[in-house]
Each structure stands twice: as C-alpha cells, then as structure tokens.
Amino acid sequence: MLKTYTYPKFEYTPPPELASGKTLRVPAIVVGAGPVGLGAALDLQLQEIPVLILDEDDTVSIGSRGVCYAKRALEILDRYRVGDPVCDKGVSWNVGRTFFRDQEVYNFNLVPEADHHRPGMVNLQQYYLEEYMVDKADKTPHIDIRWKNKVVSVTQGEKTVTLKVETPDGFYTVETDWLVVADGARSPIRHMMGLEIEGKIFMDRFLIADVVMAADFPAERWFWFDPPFHPGQSVLLHKQADNVFRIDFQLGWDADPEEERKPEKVIPRIKAMLGDDREFELEWVSIYTFQCRRMGSFRHGRVMFVGDAAHQVSPFGARGANSGLQDTDNLGWKLKLVMDGKAPDALLDTYSAERTFAADENIMNSTRSTDFITPKSKASKTFRNAVLGLAKDHAFGRALVNSGRLSVPAFLTESALNSADADAFAGRMVPGAPMDDAPVIENGDDGWLLDKVGNQFFALYFADDPNTLDGKTIDALSNLSFGNIPVQPLVISKNPGTVPGGIPNIEDPRGVASQRYDAKHGTVYLLRPDQHVAARWRALDPAKVKAAVARATCNA
C-alpha cells in the first residue's frame, strides 16, 4: 500500500447474462480500463456510441507507472471533460534542465510563448488520472464498465467479434460490431489472435524510487549525466502530487533486480543524491527495462489496437500514455462515421496509417534518446560526454543533447485525408497539424479556441467585423455540409458582434489566433473532429470545403 494514496475498490456486479444464458450484443467494446481504454470509451461516448468496458481488475493501476501528461494529451482530456481535475491535482511544468556531472549544460521550455491554456506537461501519478476517468465514465450515459470481467477468447467473424468473458461467477458471451483493445503491453488479446509485435529490447535496467519528502525543488524536470552522487550513470527527477518525487536511477544491465529494489540498497542511493539531512520516506520501488516496438498494423478487421497493446517506447520522453490518448483521439470519430454508414470502411485503415506513422516517429525519438542516455560502446560514450561538455557554451552542442525528447503531437502532414494547400500560408498550422490553442471571447466570457471545436467537422472563418458579413458569405457558411456529414461554421473575428443567420461567433481581440493561423479576413480552416487541420484556404469556396470533407472521410 502507498502512504499517500488509498486505492479504490470498484464494485463487481454479476452480469445478467449469467442468469439468462443469453448472448449480450453491443455496438462497441473496449477491453482494458487504463488511461487509454477509458479514453477510448469516453471518446466513443462523445460520438454517442454505446460502449462496454471490460477489465479483469477492480481498481486503478498499482504502483508507480505513468507520470507525465503532455500538453496535447491534456487538450484531449479537456474534450473528455477530465482535464481540469488532472491539472488541478498535478504539478504543472514547462522547464527541463540537463546536468553533466555537477554543472547545468542545457535547459529548455516546452511552451516558450504565452497564451496557451495548458502547460507543456503536468506530472500526476497514473492512478489519479484513472480514478478521474472512471468517475467521469460512471457519470456518463452509454458507458457500462464491468470490473472483474476477463476476456478469455476472441473470435472474429465477417460482421461481428465474439468474446468469451470470465467472471467470479462464471462465463458469458458477448458480441460486438467493433472491438477496441487497450489491454496493455503484454496484451492477452494480441496473443489470442496470434499477432506479432516487433522491435528492440534495450539492455539496461533502471530503478524507480518514488519518495515522499518536503522539498522546495522547483516544478521542473531535472536530468543528470554522470552525477557525483551516481557516477557513470544517469538520474532523472520529477515532482508529482502529494509531495511525491519520482527518481529514476540508471543501474546497468548487470544489476540484480531483486537485490537493487531492497531498501538497504535504495536508501543509500537517495541519501547520496539528497544528502543525509533530507528526510524522506519510500513510497514505491521497482526495477524496469524497456523496449521500442509496435505491431505492423493497428487494425485487424473489426479489432482496433490502441496504446501499449499496439506500440511501446522507452519512458524517456513521456511518449507512452500520451501517444495512446492520441490513438483514441484519432479513432473515435472515424469509427462513428463508419458505424453510421457515412464513410466507407477504408476510413478505419487511415487510423492505422496515421497512428503507425506517429508510433514510428515516437520509436525513432525514443531510440535516439535511449542510445544517448545509455551508450553501447566506449566510443559512443566518449562522443556523448564530449557533446555534454560542449553544450554549456555552444549552441551546436546543445542541439545534440538528448535526455529524452519530450512528447509532442504528431503532425500528420503525409496523411491521405489532407487537402494540400493551394494558397500561400506561413506558420505551423499546415494540413495534418494538431490545432494550436489561443485565448478567445464568446458572449463576453473569456475562453479558449480548442474548447469551441472538436467532435465534428468545423469550418473556422476569420473575419474582421462579423456585423458586416454579406448575405452571400452567410449563405455559403450555412451550406458547407457534405451529404449527411455536417460541417459546423464558426466565425472568429477581431471585433465583437453578431453573425446573421445564427452562426456562432467568437472574438480574437488580441489577434493571437489570427497570428498562429496566419489568418486574414476571409481565411477558412477545415478542422477534423480530432482538432487536426484538414485543409485551409484564403477565400471561402463551398465546393472546395465539401471536396475536402469528402477527402477527409474517404468519400472522395
């Protein structure tokens, strides 16, 4: 048990199918109630898809797991309406510092510009995130969580997936149109289906020591190479909620895991780092190795793999849960359109295409970080140390330092769903980019742009003065839907006012959004339901918008 947290025990209820003997039939099932599985369920619920969650446990994750949740993941959690409790409880930070021996050689700021709603990172123990997500799911219609329900077999047909489920009271059968697998890195369902996951296991061991202490360390990420208190190895320090600090000590591949997790081995390491006068208590200790690997495809018929079940990376860079939440963000709206018959089955292939691209990017960055942190030869270690020695005084050296390039959202610039620019634009809001946030005003109240969009297609129209939009523009904005796929117009203006025809209007009084989107009067952005840019133009042309919607839904 932990000193700072009491684990909830969720109620197991015998499924009614045990008594009736009938086969349950549901539109969608998610297996696994970790952050990614819960995220998938909450995303499907936003799409008004009834979903059943099956989890073999009856509590949240045990021990010290995920810690860092990046800005994009926080924005996704905002769509699920759990961003506020995560940010309220967690430790927000933007600055990371890297030390070589006893000197700082490099630092970075994840959000160097102002006017973003969420910080670059929030540190929060994974069990809190899961508890908040379970609470939200329990209060949400169309989500049924069944605890102590273990999937023991999976059979896929042409139109359905059939699961056999074991409970403390016996077995029952459930059929579903679509199965979302979020059952973790070891993924029993992946094994049941005979599917492979390929990649690299890194030959090193790390000690996680979560300690409780009163310390006035700033809310920053600190990483040491070859520090005096742990010579020849690396150390990482993060502050979490409840005055819990996560310390990772590199141990080397030859370290004995059983021996190194003993308190008599752990406590001297921490005292060497913190000093003998610093009081602390051990909260959690574990030893881990890590790997970078993924499945060849995240889609197998009617079965979709998300999170660690589909891909795994090293913990350096916080790319695990953050990437998994981006999986669910990508999948939900596509599944909805296919289920409703508004998009062809091929749209779900783009889930795998876009997210395997993102996984490869994460694996590349994670592998590079790991190779820098744990050099594999004397020559590579000499090069690494030379880079660190140069970094303090030379910019080119700082550019080579890699203590874990931190999670950033994937820019899906090569996606087949994008419509290429025909007009000249500056900035990073290219087709395929995740949207940048910006402060806005709606009906006199301060707010944020990302809170105004998402869950469906939006056409964001930039205007100087909403009161002067002519009838032709209003008619065009009111008729952007493609077939039975709605497109919601949203005017964003420099000046306050009301758009005729009941079209919503938000204000950009300081021009932050206009600057970030390189927008002028008449600029239009087509936004996907997952808040990625699908297309953009300098002038509104309904035919081009509809064609872009068709392309973004595989209807072209």
Characterization of the model:
This protein has 556 residues and is an alpha+beta fold. Strands 1, 2, 8, 9, 10, 11, 19 and 20 form an eight-stranded mixed beta sheet that branches. Strands 6-5-14-15-16-13-17 form a seven-stranded mixed beta sheet, with helices on both faces. The chain has a five-stranded mixed beta sheet with strand order 26-25-24-27-28, with helices on one face. The termini are far apart. The model has no long low-confidence stretch (mean pLDDT 94).
Describe the secondary structure blueprint for this structure:
Layout: H1 16-20, E1 24-31, H2 35-46, E2 51-55, E3 68-70, H3 71-79, H4 83-89, E4 91-93, E5 95-100, E6 103-109, E7 121-123, H5 126-138, E8 143-147, E9 150-156, E10 161-167, E11 170-181, H6 188-192, E12 198-201, E13 206-212, E14 221-225, E15 234-239, E16 244-250, H7 257-260, H8 263-274, E17 281-288, E18 291-294, E19 299-300, E20 303-305, E21 311-312, H9 320-339, H10 346-373, H11 378-391, H12 395-400, E22 439-442, E23 445-448, E24 457-463, H13 471-477, E25 487-493, E26 505-507, H14 512-516, E27 524-527, E28 533-537, H15 542-552
Parallel strand pairs: 1-2, 1-11, 2-8, 5-14, 11-20, 24-25, 25-26
Antiparallel strand pairs: 3-7, 4-7, 5-6, 9-10, 10-11, 12-18, 13-16, 13-17, 14-15, 15-16, 18-21, 19-20, 22-23, 24-27, 27-28
Helix pairs in contact: 2-5, 2-9, 3-4, 3-9, 9-10
